[in-house]
Inverse folding.
């Protein structure tokens, strides 16, 4: 079971140029424009191991939707 501290998070910068993907102590700063590629990557991984990778899909989709709405 995932706790709030271990749930994947995706935070978009105010200028919509970068995103920080994090889970627990792991963090990665990426170009926000690369989020659709990461969504594709995690969707493929989740098809094989949904419990491990599936939790990334919703946070990435929400971040993409936020960017598109702005």
């Amino acid at each position: 079971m995932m706790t709030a501290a271990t749930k994947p998070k995706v935070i978009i910068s105010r200028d919509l140029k970068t995103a920080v993907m994090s889970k627990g102590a792991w963090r990665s700063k990426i170009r926000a424009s690369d989020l659709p590629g990461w969504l594709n990557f995690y969707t493929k991984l989740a098809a094989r191991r949904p419990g491990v990778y599936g939790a990334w899909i919703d946070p990435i989709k929400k971040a993409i939707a936020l960017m598109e709405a702005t």
Observations:
- The CA atoms of residues 26 and 39 lie 18 Å apart.
- DSSP finds three helices and three strands in the chain.
- The mean pLDDT is 94.
